[in-house]
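Section 5.1 Outputs to date
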Amino acid sequence: MSKIGLYFGTFNPIHIGHIIIANHMVEYSDLDEIWMVVTPHNPFKKKSSLLDNHHRLELVYRATENYSKINPSDIEFKLPQPNYTVYTLAHITDMYPNKEFCLIMGEDNLKSLHKWKNYETILEHHHIYVYPRIAEGSIDHQFKNHPKIHNVSAPIVQISSTMIRNGIKNKKNMRPLLSKKVWQYIDEMNFYKK
């Protein structure tokens, strides 16, 4: 049974930090593949800076096309909104019964996991792979040394999509932080310019 790590994000836009983490997770853990799950636009939130779902999926496709173990996923596009991770996991497990799905998250998300909807159900059925992040707060005692939570010492990447969007808007050169094809698409489409 192949083991898939699900890496959720708006990927607005996907940058080299996301790829560094995904690649490290698939190369230095027992995960066979990483699926970059593009989170759909929440219809209840007004967020003008968020590109349409299909554009963000296209960026993820371009960013991952040379990585055979990292794949884009639009699984959440078809689910009712607003959606919770616990439902996506149930849905994807039903769709692919021959695969084992694990969650990938930053340490900052682990610190708030106890606030997630049905987090106990998630931990009962899925392993969580955690990469380090510099963030305030502490990890809930119940998650320390938990048999289903695995810390992977991936590089700490201090790049954010917000920083990239703001940089593009302010006419800064953000190309080093994006894969070539991602940058080309953003530039051609005039994304984040205003």
